[in-house]
């Protein structure tokens, strides 16, 4: 009888101890899982928070752009029944300004109409060499030009509204090169939270390297006069399918997802437009 009891106790201890060990493992695994979830949550939350930018005595524009070149982005909303007349008028406007190029130090970089997005809209990108002093000079000179003023007055009959921004180019963006067509362009416009432009620039200085495989970067700017805290990235593609393939390939590159994760929280609003070059656009 004693032998039977000893054997029963041994079996009982063995049966009880095994679940005890399994229970300890389960508790350990659950504790580890909770710890990992907390760490992932902290990382995710940290990406949503905008990091503090240290005070600086240097203007943000000087830290992000190192060229004394100003770009003017004209956005014209055209009356739907006057698009052809408007384009004829603006081509004459371009020819007149280019005839005075040596004095104005101003040239058209690109001219497009919107094919997807804000329809019945045209965008014209001008480059001024010599800073705001050159813009002041050009405005004074053109204000005295009778032919220019006649074209300007006529153009008003074809427009619903218009908007002008003066921009600076990001220093990390590839040099602007006019393209041979046919191409389509995409302008992605971002409205950033005030005070985040430096952080945006720091992240995109890395991110742009993931978007050079198909030579798609055309131009990158931030606003200095007009609507502030605006960023415009202009991309060039052969067609919409090429755009899709190029953008998807970027997601397969290690590091691109992290750049996106850090820049998305900086954005208040964004939208994109697909652009088609006009017949007189220097870039096709």
TrEMBL record:
GO biological process: mitophagy
InterPro entries: Dimeric_a/b-barrel (IPR011008), NIPSNAP (IPR012577), NipSnap_domain (IPR051557)
Superkingdom of source: Eukaryota
A matching Pfam family: NIPSNAP
Domain NIPSNAP positions: 71-129, 185-282
An example Gene Ontology CC term for this record: mitochondrion
Gene3D superfamilies the UniProt entry points to: 3.30.70.100
Family as reported in the entry's similarity comment: Belongs to the NipSnap family.
PANTHER family membership: NIPSNAP-RELATED, PROTEIN NIPSNAP
Protein name from the UniProt record: NIPSNAP domain-containing protein
